[in-house]
Every structure is written in structure tokens, then in C-alpha cells.
């Protein structure tokens, strides 16, 4: 502190001797930008000051981040020493997930600040600046390399929050209630639906019995008072959750494979079936008010937040964009896209309002053969999809589902979570497909089929083919 005071003394004394004068621009770039007249292309904006200022802002470059790092000091120590000190505090080796310590970064005693890792490592900073979070789980790196790079926290979990194991058959689909961090439901291959609360103490609220075959999908109403489900028994059922009763059954001619409430008009249900069609059903009456035919069975669907666009995947791996009339419920096809070269059924379609990677609405699709595709959505072109990247995972026998990771995707990269045939839950970063696996959770004893996040994004639920549902607790972050 004394040194800092001495350094500032000459500056303060000089300012007292003479009044401060306005600084004159001496940068030739500055002068040339200000004095340059507007070009003909800027005729729509005839203001010369605006054109000059815009050129100035585009011309001038920010100072080098590397220079800031070299000049940065804390208690007399440099940037690298302080950064490595923090990394040693949180990085006790490779992150190893166990059923009781899933994804937690081990801690080790942190040494005192040292300049041993000085600016001789500046070469590594140049090559890894900003992208030095590419340490994968279980990577075999030396201690020096590991300390030079930033640790990738991905999703850190502190273990299991609770387990539901009352179901004796495969849990095919699970989902948290809308805007709810506590309400969880899951459907099973025996046709049963279970509604739970995951807050302390976790408990089962309702057992909804009515379907005779596999539950393929279900959805909550906007107020979580009702639940609609579809099944291979060719029916759609409407449940009143508080009473645990089925209040309506809609019979079809083929297996009902996917269903969702319309986000704007909750009196409208969209149902995809094995008869190669999507039906728009009136929730109050159970009548089909509109239908749209496709080339194959509709296996997955999701609706954008405006309710004007629906995205559907079929059994041949195609993804369709469908326009929805909010007043009449009529449906019309606008685009058809191929998710991959294979003809594998689409198991997951999920819409996301915004992505920092794509800077627009995005969509993920997951096929049964393990092909995962990430699309940008052109809303001004009626939902036209453009493939940004794809990821090839292991082929699956089960109908394994995937989901966006909501919290971390707003910070860096585009993360998704998915189940796997090897009984693990995997996290992938679609922004770096060459080193995409960033974490995994271990605890299931059979293939993991479904995954779902709660509204608070602090809990992740996963289900497996043995009927076990595990709710994982994510570590708190500042």
C-alpha cells in the first residue's frame, strides 16, 4: 500500500500545479475516422457524425487481454500464480464420480502463492486462452498442465437427493411439473403413472392406474392441476392430479407415441401417433379438431414458446416444422429436415428459446441409433432448421432421451444431458464435439432411459430400465 501511495503522489501534485486541460486526440486513426465523410452506402443515415462515430467504434480495438494479465497483481503476485493457487484449491486430481459423490471435484490443501508457475507458461496461455476449459473427466494430464488450464466445472453434483424404486418395470418417461421444483411424475412400461414430491421428506402423492400398456409420454398443464398421458394401448388419458382420477379417455386407432399441451392455449392438445399423423384435440371435450398426415409414425414433438410452431420427429429420422393456428387449432407442414443419414426413430425433440452459441432459438433431436443433432431455428422463415453440429453417441436398444442443460448453457457452450446403455448419465458440450464429454453420474444399475430438470435447475432426475428413479442434487454455485 505504501508503494502505491508513493506512486500516486507525483500525479496528484502535478494536477494541483496546473488545471486539467481537455485532452486532444492525437491518434491518426481517430482523426481519419472522424474526418472521413459518409459513404454513398450510408445514404439511409445521412448524419455524418453518426457515420464517423460508427467507423471509430469499428476501427478502434480493445486492449490486449494478455497485457492485462501480465500487469495484474494481487499482494505482489502475478496473475498465473494466483490462478494456479485457486486451481489447486478446487482441483485435487481428476473428477471422479461415484454413487455417493457424483461429479464432485475433490479438494486438496492449497499451497501458498508462488511465482514458480510464472510467465514462462505464457505460451500455454496464448494457445489455450479462453478455451483452456477443455479438461475432460478422467484426463491423464500432468499436474503442471492441469494447473495451467482452467477446471471445467460443467455440472457438479453433491450426490443423490432421493431415490424412488417402487416401480417394478422400466420407467420410460419422467418429467417435473411446469415451473415447479418439487413436483415429479414418471411413467412405466406397465402403464402406471406415479406423481411424487421431492422436497423433504420425498413421498409418492398419487398412483395413476388406467393404461394397460407402456406409457410413451405425458405432459403437465400450465397450472399442474392436470396431466395428460398417451400409451401403446392406443388411448390418451386426462388425469386430475389432486384426486388421482382419470376424467377423460380419448380412444385412437393406433399407438399414441407423444403428447404435449399447447403452451398458449392449454385447451389444445397435440398428439403424435403410429398412424403417421398429429391430432389436435380439444382438452375439454376430447374431440379431434384437426389432424395432419406425415410420411411415418410421429415419435416425438415439442412446441415453441409462442405456440405458433411445432417440431415433430418421425420413425425414419425426419424432423418436420408444423405451423399451428392459435385460434382454430389447424395444422400445416412448412419444412422437412433430415437429422442424419440413418433412418433411426427420433426419440427426443426439445426446443430452447435462445442459445448463446447460435444467437437464436435452437432445437436438439436425439435418434435411437445415438445420433444427436443441434439445429438453429429461423423464426422469420417459418421455423426453417439449420444444422449447427451433430454428435454420434453409442447406439441404443432402449428409447433413450436427452435434454438441454438449462443453467450452464446460458454461461458457456451448449450443454446437454442424456442417459446411456452403460447405466451412466452423461453431460456433453455441443460447442466442442471433439472433446464433448464433461461429466458423468454413476449410480444406476441398468440402462438409463429418461432425464429431466426441475424448474429451479438444482435437481436432475434420471430413470432406468429396472424401474429406479434417482434425483441428483446439483452443487450450489455463486
Description:
The chain has 478 residues and is mainly beta. 14% of the residues lie in helices and 38% in strands. The protein is built from seven helices and 30 strands. The protein has helices spanning 2-17, 28-35, 48-59, 65-71, 79-90, 122-128, 143-148, and strands at residues 73-74, 77-78, 157-164, 171-176, 183-188, 193-197, 203-208, 215-220, 226-231, 235-240, 245-251, 256-261, 268-273, 277-282, 288-293, 298-303, 309-314, 318-324, 331-338, 346-355, 360-367, 371-378, 384-392, 402-404, 415-419, 424-429, 437-442, 448-453, 459-464, 469-474. The strands form eight sheets. Strands 3-30-29-28 form a four-stranded antiparallel beta sheet, with no helix packed on it. A four-stranded antiparallel beta sheet has the order 4-5-6-7, with no helix packed on it. A four-stranded antiparallel beta sheet has the order 8-9-10-11, with no helix packed on it. It starts with a helix and ends with a strand.
Instruction: Give the overall shape, derived from the CA principal axes.
Output: globular
The total of beta strands comes to 30
Uncertain residue segments: 1-22, 92-152
Largest sheet: 4 strands, antiparallel
Pfam family, one: WD40
WD repeats: 208-249, 441-478
Organism: Urochloa decumbens
Protein name: WD repeat-containing protein 13
Defining traits:
14% helix; four-stranded antiparallel β-sheet
Q: What is this structure, in a nutshell?
A:
Residues 1-23 have a biased composition (Low complexity). WD repeats lie at residues 208-249, 441-478. It is built from 7 helices and 30 strands.
